[in-house]
């Protein structure tokens, strides 16, 4: 049995020890919590914490 009653699929962030349930959540956590680089829209200059947020923004930015 793993941490917190544990699902053996849980992943731990190597930088802060946060436990996440899957690799996608771990990736997003690392982008938001530990990536100091912002993703910037080339059209309007708006900055985003993640590539996913920038991708969603680009659909409507002209």
UniProtKB/TrEMBL annotation:
Residue ranges of domain C2H2-type in the record: 11-39
Domain of life of the organism encoding this protein: Archaea
Pfam families reported in the protein's UniProt record: zf-C2H2
Entries under InterPro entries matching the protein: Znf_C2H2_sf, Znf_C2H2_type
SMART domains named among the record's database cross-references: ZnF_C2H2
Name of the protein in question: C2H2-type domain-containing protein
Upper lineage: Archaea, Nitrososphaerota, Nitrososphaeria, Nitrosopumilales, Nitrosopumilaceae
């Amino acid at each position: 049995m793993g941490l917190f009653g544990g699902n053996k699929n849980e992943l731990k962030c190597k930088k802060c020890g946060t436990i996440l349930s899957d690799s996608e959540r771990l990736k997003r956590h690392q982008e938001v919590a530990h990536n100091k680089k912002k993703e910037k829209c080339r059209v309007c200059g708006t900055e985003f914490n993640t590539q996913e947020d920038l991708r969603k923004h680009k659909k409507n930015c002209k």
